[in-house]
Amino acid sequence: MKTTANHVIECRSVKKTFGSGASEVHALRGIDISVEEGEVTMFVGPSGCGKTTLISVIAGVLDATEGECRVFGKSMQEMSNDERTRYRGKNIGFVFQQFNLIPSLTLKENVGIPLMINGIGYDEAVERAEQTLGRVGLGERAGDRPTQLSGGQQQRVAIARAIVHSPRLVVCDEPTSALDHTTGQHVVELLREVAAGDGRALIVVTHDNRIFQYADRIARMDDGRIQGVYGSFQEMADAEKVLQ
Amino acid sequence: MKRIALHMLMGETGKYLGIVAGVMFASLLIIQQLSTLVGILTQTYSGISAVHADIWVMDAKVKSIDDSKPMTDGQLGRVRSVEGVAWAVPLYKGSISARLENGDTVVATLYGLDDTTFIGGPAQMVQGNLADLRNSDSVIVDEMSAMDRLAHVAADGSRVPLKLGDTLELNDHRVRVVGLCKVGRGFQSLAVVYTTYTRALSIAPTQRKNLSYILAAAQAGKAPEEVAGKIGRVTGLGAYSSEQFVQKTLHYFLTETSIVINFGLSVIVAFLIGTLIAGQTFYNFTMDNLRHFAALKAMGANDGMILSMILLQAGLVGMLGYGLGTGLACLAGLAGQDSVITFSLPWYVLLGAGLAVVGISGISALLSLRKVMKLEPGVVFRG
Q: Is the pLDDT of residue B185 over 80?
């Protein structure tokens, strides 16, 4: 399977099953989806519908049981564990629901981690991290620790960490669920600004409908399947009205 | 990532100090127990080391220096006649009762030195001279006993240290202190009194055989072991070089007493306690950081990176804990230097404790590593 022009991510017939026998759970039941270059794609749907499993497979942190995901033309399934880990380190940035900042490190150290993982020395990494913190408006606080910041500020640090090594894909898991409405909107605006663009893509898993407006495409999921892909929130709402 | 690993560890001050304290405590216990054991074992042969003689001759059944079985004086002549013996002198060693002015009695070890040469006498005199033993009824007493066990008891109950010219009553014989000396403390920690061989026989309870040991030297160019072997073959007595006698004494205490088992158990307990404390704290520290390790894995950190981070953290706390534990053990040893506390810290105790700490740190790291290595980066996405 080749990645078609402008499709930075292509998933075909992706299935993921956890457990076996009576306790078998089908988290993904055959997903076909592609993500275009430069766009923000949101996976939405109720809890347990398979959103997080899907981005885990796309990002190469989880193996698909069947099917294939190609990210920038590379099949995650064909790579060895080590190759996949290296590929992730170079090409993918992560924003986690609970920020996952290390409390004993300063902000610049936290942000510099992806660079250090890619072999850049400590001093250069923290210097570049400081510049990236400046891009998310926290340059002045580079020496602080995460616990000294508000939730919104911590998520901005997490975004800085996700983009510091200029990855081609940024994957965000519920980036606004721990934030109030205004802060959540600011965070998504920031994500759009710094993570999406030419040759890159931003994938956001969310069920926060207040941020749907920032999506270029919305994939609605339910019960391990893609129920529909829409160009905007309005288009999705209209389609659901018709269904009702 | 090494600096990140160190900052992760040191950034959590309470936990960091807790792990270091655990390893420190274990090191301290292990070094203290091993040093005490080595100190006690050293005491078992201190009587041999203190006497600068090439060869010790004794009854063939003697097992250690504290187990002297008297020989007849005639054996001295037989030893002197063996080819390769440069000289041989008698040494009396026996227990004797010293009566204090208040009526208390103290058991002391009485050494009777060759009347002419005083071979076997104390190496370090604090007051007086060894030659003063030529004066009538004279004895030399070890300094620590002079200040404590053999000290005069004043009317108010306080102890007045023995000084030169003071008298003592040994087995109903009045003797006069003409010198104070330093001696290595013996295994039984008894007071030590030196006098001449002849005077020792007059003080000690009368026996048919009185000669405890014969101290001898090999002629120039001959190995003490070789001459000792010849003495043994010719006389039928036990004859050993100093080193052989040290080993024989050590062997006796190691195999026929419970010292090693008792202290060995203490060392094992110290190791287990240290491992439990340090291991548990380090394990908890890693478990608390499990999500962060998962995030690192998701961000591209491979198993090698994570492994080196955890090993570095364990290595640092191990090194610091070991250093602090060793320092504290040394301070404790120095504090008890002039007391009855036995403490000896040779290089192999430090090496042994170091290896134990490597074991503790290794076990701590392994407990954590197992969990971290199995960790799937995907868990970071699960709520």
A: no
Same domain, B30 and B168: no
Considering the domain architecture, whether residues B191 and B101 belong to the same structural domain is answered as: yes
Calculate the CA B98 to chain-centre distance.
27
Q: Given this model, what pLDDT does residue A107 score?
A: 94
Q: Which CATH class is domain A38-63+81-243?
A: alpha beta
Residue A116 contacts B, CB cutoff 8 Å: yes
B207 and B285 housed in the same domain: no
Q: Which of residues 271-290 of B touch A (CB under 8 A)?
A: 289
What ipTM was estimated for this complex?
0.84
Contact B239, B228 (CB under 8 A): yes
B353 & B212 share domain: no
The distance of B325 to chain A (nearest Cα, Å) reads 26
Total number of domains constituting chain B: 2
Determine which helix (DSSP H) or strand (DSSP E) holds B362, and give its type and residue range.
helix B347-374
A27 contacts in B (CB within 8 Å)?
none
Structure confidence by residue, pLDDT tens digits, B350-364: 888 888 888 877 887
Q: Which residues of A touch B6 (CB under 8 A)?
A: none
Domain that holds residue B224: 72-236
Closest CA relative to residue A146, chosen from A161, A131, A132: A161
- Average pLDDT of the segment spanning A184-197: 77
CA distances from B242 to B47, B93, B227 (A): 10, 16, 12
Instruction: Answer whether A117 touches B (CB < 8 Å).
Output: yes
Lowest mean pLDDT, pick from A18-32, A63-77, B150-164: B150-164
Q: Which of A109, A145, A173 is the closest to B4 by Cβ?
A: A109
Distances (CA, A) of B52 to A235, B213, B366: 104, 14, 51
A78 vs B351: CA distance, rounded Å: 50
Residue of B nearest to A108 (CA): B4
DSSP 8-class letter at A50: S
Residue B192 in any domain: the answer is: yes
Residues B164 and B295 in one domain: no
Map out the domains of chain A as residue ranges: 38-63+81-243
- When mean pLDDT is compared across A75-89, A91-105, A188-202, B227-241, the lowest value belongs to A188-202
Chain B residues near residue A117 by CB distance under 8 angstroms: 1, 296, 299-301, 305
Q: Cβ of B300 and A52 within 8 Å? A: no
Q: Which of A96, A104, A144 to mutate to test the interface with B (most CBs of B within 10 A)?
A: A104
Does the pLDDT value for residue A27 go beyond 60?
Answer: yes
Q: Report residue B340's pLDDT band, with 50, 70 and 90 as the boundaries.
A: low
Q: What is the pLDDT of residue B59?
A: 92
Question: Does residue B146 belong to any structural domain of this protein?
Answer: yes
pLDDT digits (tens, 9 = 90+) for B260-273: 788 788 878 877 88
Local structure of B205: helix, strand or coil:
coil
